[in-house]
Amino acid sequence: MEFHNLSEENNSTNSVRALVSKKKKSRQNVCFYGFLIAALIGIMIGLAIGIPLTKRDSPDQNVQEAQNVLKQYPLIDGKRWNYFSHNDLPWQYRQYVQNKVYEVNLREDTRIQWTNTTNMTSYDFPRLPPQTDIPRLKQGMVGAQFWAAFGPCSATGKDAIRIGMDQVDVIHKFVNKYDDTFELVTTAQGILDAYLSRNRIASLIGLEGGHMISNTLGVLRSFYSLGVRYMTLTHSCDTSWADNWKQDLNMTGSRRGLSAFGEIVVKEMNRLGMIIDLAHVAKQTMIDAIKISAAPVIFSHSSAFEKCEHYRNVQNDVLEMVKNNTGLVMVNFYDGYISKGCLPVNATESTMQHVIDHINYIKDFIGVDYVGIGADYDGVPTLPVGLEDVSKYPDLFGKLRANGWSTEDLKKLAGENFIRVFKDVEKVKEKQKTVQPYEDILPEDETVPNRMCYTSF
């Protein structure tokens, strides 16, 4: 029978039983509260230990943490033909609509506007699937972008300057058209002000290919006055003063690197405060430029040679020079430079993990302070699974977070490293403010051998 149903006892027995019951209840209360306290302690321990473990195991939580990082610091992407650390959207404008910015609605999906049936202006490069528009930039939490002013190598010695100027004009036009989204900036502080103070995508201009200055320092200075803040010394073709990466394919070929005039180009870029970009150049050109430059250099969209033996990538001895120069290697996402068809991986399909392998390799080899993002969107035909367009950055940063990257290191990768390089370039400019412009002329015997396109020097 149950305890609470006992009722026919004498008074003394009832008193004893009441006392016993009271003591039992007291012990039960003590046990109950003890259990409650122990349970609360267990919950607190679970919160202290279990939740962080859950966070590390949760892809959604890692992506959320990555998004928080990108909110605190602008993602700067530096890729090649048209996209920053580098984005080639300006080339897409040339290819698909003959630079007619006002005929395109960048607020809508460019994949719908530019299709396989859209006519192209130039067949120097294959049709590239559109990888950039404002909705995807916002989804990707891009805070700053180097838009690449690119001109094909076929314009060398002909109308390369015209194409370069047109590309710069395209950038100015779409930045002005969407001034609630983009803001043209020309300084390191300008990047932070545009993104953090005015919630704009800080838009910088990179000239992708030294052939577009047509061997003339006056043109270099003119591009700087129009807002260009980095120049890739060569594209995939030689200039009269610098060798490109294809020279390294011919192991018995020349190792000229930079000519004497090329060294002057580097020095004038230092004086101007223009960042020297060594993506696309030959290894000897890399070495010469790093030795000559008084400021840090960048590789705006190159990866690690050790992970993919392609000469567009950076070899270990040059990586060490980059560290000593306090420069920056911004990892390219193009699958041909990441894993596809190159040793030691030789993958048939590239994935996000292959990109992470390059990022981690550079981080581990020379340090987290010298690695950045240089995706190359809208400048390459194929990309790894999971990194198909500019909207995918949070996924990449989330996976890095899951792999143990700290918040501080993710900030460096996203933009702090580039801001630091840009500020150092500006410091060199300030130190050289009393240096007169270089007025050297390329020797006539070194010019492009097409006299029909030149009047003199």
From TrEMBL:
* Main location group: membrane
**What catalytic reaction does the record list?**
an L-aminoacyl-L-amino acid + H2O = 2 an L-alpha-amino acid
Q: Which GO terms describe its biological process?
A: proteolysis
State the annotated membrane topology for this chain: Lipid-anchor; GPI-anchor
CC terms in the record's Gene Ontology section = side of membrane
Q: Name one Pfam family in it.
A: Peptidase_M19
In which compartments does the protein localize? Answer: Membrane
Answer whether the UniProt record assigns the keyword Phosphoprotein to this protein.
Answer: no
- Positions in coiled-coil regions: none
Checking InterPro entries in the record gives: Dipep_AS (IPR000180), Metal_Hydrolase (IPR032466), Pept_M19 (IPR008257)
Query: Which EC class is the enzyme in?
Result: hydrolase
Q: Which family does it belong to?
A: Belongs to the metallo-dependent hydrolases superfamily. Peptidase M19 family.
How does this protein assemble? Answer: Homodimer; disulfide-linked.
| Database matches in PANTHER family | DIPEPTIDASE, MICROSOMAL DIPEPTIDASE
For this entry, the protein name equals Dipeptidase
- Taxonomic classification, please? Eukaryota, Metazoa, Spiralia, Lophotrochozoa, Mollusca
